[in-house]
Design brief:
Helices cover 15% and strands 42% of the residues. The protein is globular, with a radius of gyration of 29 Å. The N and C termini lie far apart (74 Å). 35% of the residues are buried.
Length: 438
């Protein structure tokens, strides 16, 4: 009866009005939210559907060997006059695909067919199809044999092989996760290498674990032989004077006012944390191959004014006001000393960065990156290649620096590490190149 009533109503409407309604009917934009090529037993899939008039019907079907397996359907009440006003613009449909939703599936190729019907007069059908692979084998991982001597705050490399249905693999060290990459020169993406850090704040007894998992939540883990050497880092007292505060307030908090200790804490705490998050986010723009070659270069003829992981206590007029951990090396020569790229790579940041002042970050591939901060002058551009020994700027006192120097740091997948190891040719040969040669 409803369909008959709708037909009668349509016939009663002026042709011009119907033509206008038809003209305003719109197709649906469909997009796969996650990059998925493989489905297993129960793999979540998210499809974003965009239509200013809403979606009347949404279906998902798997097809294999001439058979169809419906895995999802959502139907909404029809609104043929929805073109008069916007009903719904964007909707995300989440459903699970795999052998659990479609028991007849076998491992191999499968076609996922999506169809969305617009909720307007013409009820336009918009298809989306993609070829996927069914792999119901659980993830598995096998770690290469070898001894791994790890230092608190240092770096390490491990090689392993994954199998089954997996989409993510790497190393976990406590709360930190480090991604793996295809082993250079390997014939299979299942051969993996992972550069990871043993963070300076890792609690005693933290054990690094190799893992692999897939979107269904299935996970396999493996341990490897390792010996962790914990070390005690230095404690240093930093005296903060009014002249220094006026300098950094002018550069980093020009619109601020009020209690100088509170303003300093805002910079030394809040801004430092925000800058650390920015540096960590650079892990997402790393190259999928090794760009560096040989040991990294320490600033020539430099004296070390501060070391990695110095625990700093800040005092203002004799009162303790803050404490922070220094996650790099402060290297000094003379004012405006030329600063060179420590190794080959690509410049991914060249500009101001809060407490670090004028800063350059170079990506060396597979999550390894170097940091050059407090520069008085930048002579490199983001996106450009950097060659080992190439001048990229000059030392300075920008940001939260008390005097002219270079703050040099390194990070592995966004986590700060001690640069000393990467300056050591023997360490690189024994701990990195030996793993790559397997």
């Amino acid at each position: 009866m409803k369909a008959i009533a709708a037909i009668i109503l349509i016939l009663a409407l002026p042709i011009g009005y119907l033509a206008a309604l038809a003209a305003r009917s719109t197709p649906t934009e469909l997009k796969l939210q996650d990059h998925i090529k493989v489905i297993g037993t129960n793999t979540p899939i998210r499809i974003v559907a965009v239509n200013p008039h809403g979606i009347r019907r949404f279906t998902a079907v798997l097809e294999q060997d001439g058979k169809s397996y419906p895995v999802f359907e959502r139907q909404e009440p029809a609104r043929r006059w929805a073109v008069i006003r916007k009903v719904e613009d964007r909707r995300t449909y989440t459903f699970e695909a795999g052998s659990k939703a479609a028991p007849g599936l076998r491992d191999g190729k499968v076609m996922l067919r999506i169809e969305a019907v617009s909720n307007d007069l013409l009820a336009r059908r918009e298809p989306l199809q993609m070829e996927l692979e069914v792999n119901t084998k659980p993830p598995a991982v096998s770690v290469d044999e070898g001894q791994h001597y790890i230092t608190l705050g240092g770096s390490e490399v491990v090689a392993f092989t994954v199998a089954g249905y997996w989409t993510e693999a790497g190393v976990r060290v406590g709360k930190y996760t480090f991604r793996s990459f295809p082993m250079p020169g390997a014939n299979s993406p299942n051969r993996r290498i992972c550069f990871f850090a043993y963070p300076y704040d890792a609690p005693e007894g933290t054990v690094p674990i190799v893992y692999t998992r897939n979107p269904t939540g299935a996970e396999a883990t493996a341990r490897f032989w390792n010996k962790v050497t914990r070390k005690k880092f230095r404690t240093r007292e930093i005296l903060v004077g009014d002249a220094f505060l006026n300098k950094i307030f002018a550069a980093l908090d020009p619109a601020g006012s009020g209690n100088p200790v509170a303003r300093f804490m805002k910079i030394n705490n809040d801004m430092r944390q925000a800058n650390a998050q920015t540096l960590a986010s650079f892990r997402d723009v790393t190259a999928g191959k090794i760009l560096w070659n040989g040991p990294f270069i320490q600033l020539a003829n430099s004296s070390v004014e501060a070391q990695f992981c110095d625990f700093r206590k800040y005092f203002y007029h004799g009162q303790s006001v803050d404490q922070q951990v220094h996650l790099g090396f402060d290297l000094a020569v003379t004012a405006r000393t030329p600063v060179v790229a420590a190794n080959d790579g690509k410049v991914i940041h060249a500009g101001p960065l809060g407490i670090y002042g004028n800063t350059i970050v170079i990506d060396h591939g597979l999550g390894l990156q170097s940091l050059y901060a407090h520069l008085s002058e930048i002579q490199a551009k983001a996106g450009s290649d950097a060659k080992k020994g190439q001048v990229i700027g000059k030392s300075g006192a920008t940001g939260l620096a008390g005097g002219d120097h270079l703050h040099y740091g390194m990070q592995v997948d966004g986590v700060p590490v001690n640069p000393v190891e990467w300056w050591d040719a023997h360490w690189i040969k024994d701990r990195v190149l030996s793993v790559l040669a397997r």
